[in-house]
Design brief:
Number of strands: 11
Number of domains: 3
Largest sheet: 7 strands, mixed
Distance between the termini: 9 Å
Number of helices: 7
Order of helices and strands: HHHEHEHEEHEEHEEEEE
Helix content: 10-25%
Radius of gyration: 19 Å
Shape: globular
Structural class: alpha+beta
Length: about 280
């Protein structure tokens, strides 16, 4: 199981554990008791500018040393995990209310853009913490819109069709605060993992995507949707292929296939992938 399942799963997949949707802000603690967060939240990104500069200077030894230190810190911090659409819908229908459409902080950071209405919102706030969203005006300055479970499912399906990866956001050490819908050019966790090897900012999904070559006709509808470079066209077979060691199991290629030629397979089904998170 991944580190967050060990930490928060109670023997199951952590984002399917109902306890993780009971926001700690609504729990009474003993005087002096601390929340579930581990480590210093202000220290999460410390070192990345120095790592980038070291790489630009060609000092790969310093770069790898800084990244190693960051990974050691991040291993004790809350993280995020890729979740396929079908699991997102299951969560929406079973346990995550309330749901709130809101702007994407990654796009604001990467592009300086602020989504300000339901036609622009691309991320999803989840859980009782959303009743206190107005306490963080900078994070939610673009506003929010509460959604019904049906509207939330349609919201997720809309962004899935546009090729967005769904990411469960673990907050504060003991609750799930949202589902991010994002892609490589904008997403901070995706970019930090893919570009810099910060492996604990984004955990691979519980599944891998596996092609069924008997059903695949090589149409290429899935090509261009993988945000992690796991899917490539194989000229020797005239069909796409998926590298299971690289795949994050987001399922965005699967939902694009009209022939049902891609399936989700539990990562732990294959011993070689059981610890590749």
């Amino acid at each position: 199981m991944c580190r967050m399942c060990d930490w928060l799963g109670d023997g199951t997949v952590w984002y399917k554990n109902p306890k993780n949707y009971a926001n700690r802000m609504y729990k009474l603690r003993e005087p002096g008791a601390q929340g579930g967060f581990r480590g210093d939240p202000q220290n999460v990104g410390a070192g990345l500018p120095e790592a980038i500069q070291a790489k630009a200077n060609g000092d790969l030894e310093a770069f790898h040393s800084i990244i190693k230190g960051m990974n050691e810190r991040h291993a004790t911090q809350p993280g995020t995990q890729v979740v396929p659409l079908r699991d997102c819908i299951e969560l929406v229908m079973d346990m995550g209310t309330p749901f709130v459409a809101m702007h994407c902080i990654c796009r604001k950071t990467a592009r300086g853009e602020e989504e300000t209405n339901i036609n622009e919102y691309s991320c999803l706030g989840v859980g009782t913490g959303m009743f206190k969203w107005e306490r963080w005006p900078e994070r939610y300055r673009g506003g929010v819109e509460f959604l019904s479970p049906k509207q939330t499912a349609e919201f997720l399906e809309y962004w899935d069709k546009r090729g967005m990866v769904h990411i469960a956001m673990q907050e504060g050490g003991d609750f799930i605060g949202g589902i991010c819908n994002c892609d490589y050019p904008d997403c901070v966790p995706i970019r930090q993992r893919v570009d810099y090897g910060l492996n604990y900012q984004l955990t691979k999904g519980e599944y891998i995507c596996e092609p069924d070559y008997e059903k695949c006709n090589g149409c290429g509808e899935c090509l261009g949707r993988c945000q992690f470079n796991a899917l490539k066209y194989e000229s020797t077979i005239d069909k796409p292929n998926i590298d299971p060691m690289v795949c994050f199991g987001c399922g965005v290629c699967m939902t694009a296939c009209n022939r049902g030629a891609i399936r989700l397979v539990p990562r732990r089904q294959y011993p070689v992938l059981a610890n590749v998170w």
